[in-house]
Design a protein that fits this description.
Chain lengths: 367, 367
């Protein structure tokens, strides 16, 4: 059954300009950012990850006060717990960091934080007081969960990194998939983190979009390394219905990213990005810095425990102005970041995509 | 100075359909394959790598007898020599393979093969008896070398994997860059293999094309994971002037790839690809098999010595029908391979790209 026949607006109506601002957890995707994007005809997103259900709800209320346009909320799926020995070992390996930043690593910091990220409470809230779009990262919800949201009139999106994950999302009843290429900044939304690999063998976006399009019938939101309108035109030519950009919006004044994080995106000190488990225990792409180089090689697959283990260290690094100890999440296109206001950036991207089309149509008619 | 003003045809004239068949060394890009592609309005390529200068010239003559259309020849750039201790260690680590396949690893097999791949002799031949296009892999030729080819009326292309390498190619005077994304099958054409990395942090094609376009003025041939016409339309929307496909042509009847290699592309036994130095000593993407899993983790940066060290083992594996011991080079889109005749594949890709445009123009006019 199509979304329209269930009374849910289609993706094209929820996001008229085909541009989605990626949910960036950890304080980046603030209501101010989401509101500016939605007001400009993009689809703004709140990131519920790491927040309490109440904290998420507070932001939804703030965002509703800022815009009457559609927006989305992203949820992290519950994760399996890591074993204590693994965590103890990594905590030990971080001892030098603790000394350096004069910040104790709370012995059981991760125990106070649920590995389910308050998922059920958040979902219950979103069913009770629906928002236009809900997307999921790190797994696929059950059919019942997706049905409950559909009944509430919500458009659901599952983040996928392989054709198999897209298949799972379609079977579960998602309305769309967010197809995340290996180029993407921050966490890879892989449904299961395989400790046997370092996560670096994922598919490039263009290859992945085509493979997903040939596997499922669902609308595709393409994500990963997109910074320019011509790239949006490109993924749409490949069959995507919309493009999702994270790092591009990270540099906007409305983004809640730390100023040092914003500056690092174009700092020639940081020449490349890599996937690492060093900060969170799950592969995520960031600018290569000292912390990553030092701890990446042995960081365990233990998310979100490692995230909570390192959060104090990262904050301490930010306080003393040391970007080498912060998680500088960034996609492969980080050098092309622009610090335009978010609404203006949506307009610029849209008009760049348009120019790319016009240029192509012209080349085609003269060839 | 533009290529036209030097009397060299532009890329669009050398390759009317904007589709290049990637040079695949090791016997895949036979004259039959290159000829069929060029005859269909694509740009066929011969791969001079691992051949003697005479062997290369023999193929050029064969190809000239097959087609009057433009074609290209790809050269490998000379590589630094690996140290003997590194090679001795890896040879020792391959002892079990030698026993298993009952094939001795020639004690000094790699000494009989130059690390410069006969580069100067090949270049001299190509200056003497010019071909329409020459492309380079694993480095950037000197300005003098590129000038000599330009004087001979040859269009030159340098393979690049970063914006910095594209900059070097422009400074040296190349006529175009072949921009190779991390999705590509076979060797990454990185100018210098950094032993400190496993090569997996390279850029996805779409991210790379944009970054190169914003760094240099040269025409861009986009390569990496491209299997469908819609992907060709996509890279052209992103600013590429042509698309280069390897794995897509590997499955064609005219390709010289081993039949087991062709079959493996769509065999569900081989679910993913990875970059490995196991077979050649330089990061190359292939279907993950036993040999890669076993030797990849410690294979040294020692190209082409390791290539010559393992060639006997790989041939023995092929002889006994064991795909787990062969180098199954493949790009990330391998599952989408089609065993169409090469000329027909050029037509199909071209018409798919055309459909993607038409669909986009339609969506655009109704939005």
């Amino acid at each position: 059954m199509s979304v329209e026949s269930r009374g849910i607006p289609a993706l094209g109506e929820l996001c008229r300009r085909g541009i989605v601002a990626a949910p960036m957890a950890g304080g980046v995707s603030r209501p101010e950012l989401a509101g500016a994007v939605s007001d400009a005809g993009g689809l703004g997103f709140l990131a519920a990850g790491y927040k309490t259900a109440d904290g998420m709800y507070e932001e939804i209320k703030q965002l509703r006060a800022l815009t009457a346009k559609p927006f989305g909320v992203n949820l992290f799926m519950p994760q399996p717990s890591a074993d204590q020995a693994t965590l103890d070992l990594y905590r030990q390996q971080l001892t030098s960091e603790s000394a350096w930043y004069e910040t104790p690593i709370d012995e059981r910091s991760e125990e106070r934080h649920p590995t389910d990220d308050g998922y059920e409470a958040k979902l219950a809230l979103l069913v009770d007081d629906p928002v236009p779009v809900v997307s999921f990262t790190f797994g696929c919800p059950s059919r019942d969960e997706l049905d409950a949201l559909a009944l509430a009139g919500t458009f659901t999106v599952v983040t996928v990194t392989t054709p198999e994950e897209a298949q799972a999302a379609e079977w579960a009843g998602a309305d769309a998939v967010c197809v995340q290429g290996i180029e993407a900044g921050g966490h890879q939304g892989t449904h299961r983190d395989d400790p046997q690999t370092d996560g670096s063998s994922g598919l490039g976006l263009l290859s992945l979009v085509t493979q997903v399009r040939e596997t499922v019938q669902l609308p595709v939101i393409a994500a990963g390394g997109l910074m320019r309108g011509a790239q949006i035109a490109a993924v749409r030519a490949a069959g995507a219905d919309a493009a999702q950009l994270g790092t591009a919006f990270l540099a906007c004044p409305e983004s809640g990213a730390h100023v040092m994080h914003k500056q690092a995106l174009k700092n020639p000190l940081f020449v490349r990005t890599e996937l690492t488990r060093a900060f969170s225990g799950r592969p995520a792409r960031g600018l290569v810095n000292r912390f990553m180089r030092e701890h990446g090689p042995y960081a365990p697959s233990a998310y979100p425990e490692v995230h909570y283990m390192t959060v104090g260290l990262r904050k301490a690094a930010a306080r003393v102005g040391d970007a080498q100890g912060m998680a500088l999440w960034a996609g492969q296109g980080h050098r092309l970041a622009r610090d335009l206001p978010a609404g203006r950036l949506v307009q610029v991207l849209h008009s760049e995509a348009d120019s790319a089309w016009t240029e192509m149509a012209l080349r085609r008619s003269t060839s």
